[in-house]
Amino acid sequence: MDAATGGAGNDVFTGNTALGALTLTALDNIDGGAGEDILNIAVAAPANLTTAVGASIKNVETLNLTSTGAVTIDASGYTGMETVSSSSVGNSTITAAATTDTVIAVGSPTGAGAAAINGGKNVTLTVTDAAVAGAGSANTVAIGASARPAGTVVVSQTEVITDAAAAGASASATGTITVNGGTSVNVSSFATLGAAENAGDIVTIGAIAVNGRGTATDVTVTQQTQTIAFNGTTQTSIKATAGAVTITDLNTALKADTIKSVALTSFGNSTHTGN
Fold first, then answer.
1. What strand order describes the sheet that includes 29-31?
2. Residues near 182 by beta carbon (within 8 Å), at least 6 away in sequence
């Protein structure tokens, strides 16, 4: 791509070859100029934009990245970037400036670091995966671990759970979700439950933790509706059990709490800690 400069209108830049190879490198300089400009990148492989150290991207308002593998983006230095939109098949690690909205879709992640989102303004994250009862996905979703989002946070996770045939009792949990900061925080975690063959076929929704960090004002958490155990007649699917929900306000004697509203739907053990 090397150097690309936009004009007064709305420009579209492309950061991949026709065969889906990433072309953004450390030597590239992209200036969108005026208008609402877009950088589109669609790659048929994992996409790590942080390898393009030294690349300059400015006055480009939207980055759209799709990848058939894992995605790593640090858009915190992209001057003028308003929205980062990413879709991956595999884990996603996204960092953005406090003025940049992030819209992220993660499919089929693998265990720890399934989604690690830091910074950003308004964060929207959708995670979908599949797992076998008894094994679990072991996925971890973390928002704001090192840099907290400045605006709203919406996280939706869904796992499709199947049971190994004639495996006996199979118990496991879906992935965990942790949110740090943000203003209005809305987290949902669901499971699409397959057929069971044992009363011990149980899936527990993974633990959800929301840490207000002195900025969150309201928190909504929704989990999969709980069901009864397999009995072969009225209940033939894997049993769903709600997991723990922990909500922690600023929790310091030096500053007032900020979370004013909490709404929980279908939850297990829950804890709300504040001053």
1. 3-5, 29-31, 56-58
2. 123, 143, 144, 148, 149, 150, 151, 152, 153, 215, 216
Highest mean pLDDT among 2-6, 51-55, 120-124: 120-124
Q: Which residue has the tokens 């709980």?
A: 226
pTM of the model: 0.96
Tell me the pLDDT tens digit for each residue of 59-73.
999 999 999 999 999
DSSP letter string over 154-194? EEEEEEEEE--TT----EEE--EEEEE--SEEEEEEEEEE-
Other Cβ atoms closer than 10 A to 215: 18
Please give the DSSP secondary-structure letter assigned to residue 226: P
b/e per residue 155-188 (b: at least 16 CB within 10 A):
bbbbbebbbeeeeeebbbbbbbbbbbbbbebbbb
- Proportion of the chain in helix, strand, coil states, percent, rounded to 5: 0, 50, 50
The pLDDT, as a whole number, for residue 162 is 96
